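ZP: hey, is the fe (ii) ion complex queued? I don't see it on the tracker
AM: it wasn't, my bad. submitting now with these inputs:
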Amino acid sequence: MSHEPHDHETEQLPSQGRYSPRAAELVKIFDDRVEDVYRQVREQPFWKTLMDAKTSNETCLKIFREVFLSIYWYQRQTTEAGFHMIGRLPGSEETMLKLLMLHKIEEAGHNGWAFRDYQLLGGSVEYADKIPMSPACFAIAGVWWRMAIAESPFGYIGAEYLFEYLTMRVAQDLVPVFKQRGFKAEGLKFIIDHATEDEKHAKLVRHLISDSVTRYPESEAAMLRCFDYFRQVYPLPVWTEAYERATGITPQWDGDLPWSGLGKPTK
Ligand SMILES: [Fe+2]
């Protein structure tokens, strides 16, 4: 946690880093929740498969390819819903709006990173656009749109922390695995770049949580609630689905996916 008085983001925020005592406590609550999610992640078959030295490089890369496809499917929706949600903040919150918008603009480009890596790992553009998004991706889109329409816009900050801090934690643990397995950066740059990118983003969101709870103590409940809403659909269902597509538990990526409505493959 970083509450230095001269942090760049801190100085820009209306509270200028003079956070209420509750701020540090709340950040700790969020950090503990993310750690709990990550503990659950490490218990899942997709994680155990990735970490198992007996798993082939090919299978590992297929799992990442399918995760990138999922990101391609859901992230356009979470970005659009996120902008909608931020747009409902009080108009007087100029600085917070600017920081959140700039951050979200950076995130918007990451969809392209995921799609680039999906293709570098052998994914088909035609397929990605032809198949409707998977059920777990649809659930993510559904939660984000409901939050965007019906929740306090301050809740956005809590949900976003799950994206940012968890991605940082996971990416930083995966990079050494890539080295051990001798993977090239090509096709995995989404993850490699997020190990550093999301360190900055997680820090920014921590400041926004702190600023928000200092000036709007009632926003705490909305931030925690939206974190929990999002946690119900991310990441376990969507990463499990990607793993099941990659390993053939669900029919293979070029096969008859149950929700596709495309019928049996003709080849
Ligand atoms: Fe990020």
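AM: back. The two ends are 54 Å apart (CA to CA).
ZP: great, adding it to the tracker
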